[in-house]
Amino acid sequence: MRRLPPVLLEDGCSHDLVSLIRTILAACKEISFRVSQGALSGVLGSTLDENIQGETQKKLDVLSNQLLKDILLESGYVKAIASEEEPDTVAGNPDGQYIVAFDPLDGSSNIDINSLVGTIFSIMQVPKDADANDPNIFLQKGDQQVAAGYVLYGPSTMLALTTGKGTRIFTLDKTHGSFLLTTDFVQVPKTTREFAINASNQRHWEPAMKNYIADLLAGETGPRGENFNMRWIAAMVGDVHRVLTRGGVFTYPADTKNPEKPYKLRLLYEANPMAMLVEQAGGVASTGYERIMDIEPEQIHQRVAVILGSKDEVETCLSYHA
Ligand code: AFP
User: Are residues 38 and 91 both part of a single domain?
Assistant: First the structure.
């Protein structure tokens, strides 16, 4: 089986980009080990702190953030980082040409129940003379990402990665510590009969999403004339991995539960990298009203509605929003 570095070099990625991706993966291997040790490594449970999103930080959130932050800032490739767990961007090497936005441990409510969690990352490029202390260097459209991926810490540790030449899946061979290519050029099936949404928010959704989901739930006796299956992992990495593997629609739509926070998922380090992975695999990623990777970000922790997955089904969902 082929290892990650030669695959990326054959795709025309620069040595620096390949080294940067390997740097991220070095931290992810350590996170994978800590996650698999669970209670034995003393990392389960919460800290007493909240992050910038007002969410209680889990010990593993803090640890994963520190591992990624330290290794990236010391690597020399990175001008600055933005993380879900950091209120502000953090400057690295002023001569670095890459910036990295990441969610160090997505799905943290799953940590203590030994369920799926993962790391999501987005890599962008900046001019050499850009100011490492200027947070505005992160305000780039998703289309400007040079690479995006996630590492899923499940029964096996898997990497989904794109550098703009398709989406590939690698599996961590824990005996050698290498990510080996296990699925080349992933293709999300165009059609599906599976969807993922947190249905407990139903009464707070916009009418378009209420109507769409009601028609799916009506099954073969409803307007769609087919039965649909529902799944919810409560970790976007797990749900998107299922979509990449066997198709489906994943959505975290707008809701009115908290009028100050109509969206849940973060644009720079959740929606954009997942949108790139899904589009590169032939799927669609939208807010319901616009393509996610067309959004001009205004803030590093900005949130958006997300509807992504199998092309035909996402387009059907979008037709309810038209
Ligand atoms: P964290 O990034 O705080 O771990 O949250 C995970 C997440 O943003 C996303 O991965 C899930 O799809 C979603 O939250 C789950 O939300 P619910 O709490 O509504 O199930």
Answer: yes
